[in-house]
Known about the structure:
Layout: H1 4-13, E1 18-22, E2 25-28, H2 29-45, E3 53-57, H3 62-73, E4 77-80, H4 87-97, E5 101-104, H5 109-115, E6 124-127, E7 136-137, H6 138-143, E8 159-164, E9 174-178, H7 179-189, E10 200-203, H8 210-221, E11 225-228, H9 234-244, E12 248-251, H10 253-261, E13 275-279, H11 285-294, E14 299-306, E15 311-316, H12 329-338, E16 344-345, E17 350-354, E18 367-372, E19 379-380, H13 384-390, E20 391-392, E21 395-404, E22 410-415, E23 420-422, E24 425-427, H14 429-437, E25 442-452, E26 456-465, H15 473-481, E27 492-495, H16 509-516
Parallel strand pairs: 1-11, 3-4, 3-5, 5-6, 6-7, 10-11, 10-12, 12-13, 13-14, 26-27
Antiparallel strand pairs: 1-2, 8-9, 9-19, 14-15, 15-16, 17-18, 18-21, 20-21, 21-22, 23-24, 25-26
Amino acid sequence: MNVTELLSITAAIVPERGSLIFEGERFTYAQIQERVNRLVNALAGLGVEKGDRVAVLQVNCPEVVESCFATAKLDAVWVPLNFRAKADELAYMVNHAEPKVLLVGARYHGLVESFREQVPAVGRIVALESPHPGWLFYDDLLAGASDEERFPQAGDDDLVVLMFTAGTTGHPKGVMLTHESFSSYILANVEPADPESEEKNLLTVPLYHIAGLQAVMAGFYGGRTIIIQRQFEAEEWMRLVGKERVDRAMMVPTMLKQILDHPAFAQHDFSSLKVITYGAAPMPAEVIKRALKALPGCRFINAFGQTETASTITMLSPEDHVIPDSTSPEELERYLKRLTSIGKPLPDVEVRIVDEHGNEVPVGQVGEIVARGSRLMKGYWKQNDATKDTIRNGWLYTGDLGYRDQEGYIYLAGRAKDFIKRGGEMVSPEEVEQVLMSHPAVDDAAVIGVPDPDWSERVRAIVVLKPGQQVRPEELVEHCRQRLASFKKPESIVFVDELPRNSMGKVLKRVLREQYGGPIEAASKG
């Protein structure tokens, strides 16, 4: 299924239904369809043809959504750029993708000018929101273009989106996603638009991230009204939920925590919320337990995936988040443990956990999570070696480590590159982090391995305390020693005000290793 049909089918079924709401502006599906058609013809007039790239650098807004569908209608390739990236990073991505057209939001006009001479491959630049000298203006392009319909010819396996990875280590890689990468997931998991049923989605996840883009495509196919937030801001998010009577939202764990911690939380109305989907980074057990109590009428879904898998491959369902009122202590522990899992594989994807030789590991043993299915990426743009390293014998190696329990639930154990090798024993940073965050004084924590001549690596924890709390490093070490095998406990504790994270809430372990990767003093060994 061509992704443009996710819009065109819904525009035919419920043309007058609200499609996008953004800062006071409201668009129906018929209006968005017309605007997309105008942009299609405008881009064609700029010479955009099949296979050409159209890049966009802008926060969430209707124009970004329109550019995605218009590019697809021309059988071209849409390239959303990380608007939080620095000039050198953006120049690298632009030169790597070589877009024929680059659309730029007002706040980034000066930034693009600063590296304009470094990106000679860019054909035309289009200014969004306000005109810019020497560039074309988006509003003028639409006003001067025909709204005549154009019909794409691309097949399921044709490239439609080039999405760069977060780039937590080294240069970001361009992930090649096809029409089927998106449509197969949506057709298997989302009900089509229904004239008798309406829902409202609140979109805060950036559209250069796979979770944000999938949320828009699923919302369009489902005939939902999408309320767009430029960037996440907790109080505005809470206000929009109450004002627009939002039914569902997609969040990352740091967003959910900010809302629960916000002093104005109790002043807002969340009664309309039916579903919150979370993912993109590990969810601390204490945060999801708080959310279940604070939002009793809302159902939660943990969606695990990555750019290379075109979003979700495993899911912890709403039913898995329900803890029965009357249960034994042993059963309660099992339910609480399950909340820390990423659930089970979706029906349209095969998921295995394998050792370094590609052999499936037994239940309870840690290995790398690999996936196989029609909607996974085609590979990395212009990087054959990286593609061969990631896709082996038809299986995509995610780089995430995990294990499966007796009931088939999968638990993350960290990234393969982050696993700590201490004296022949393997230490999962995520396991230690969860234990640290179970301490009442700890607000956030990250664990890294630091080089050691005797043990190969040793365990260091970087910890953020809750406001007003104090605790001695020895107390945290003892807290872990009582709950973990002795070799897993931190041997060094560093207190910081906050952890460095990317836009999706993932801790930047590379930055932590650069800042706190020095050896642990010999006096503390043992």
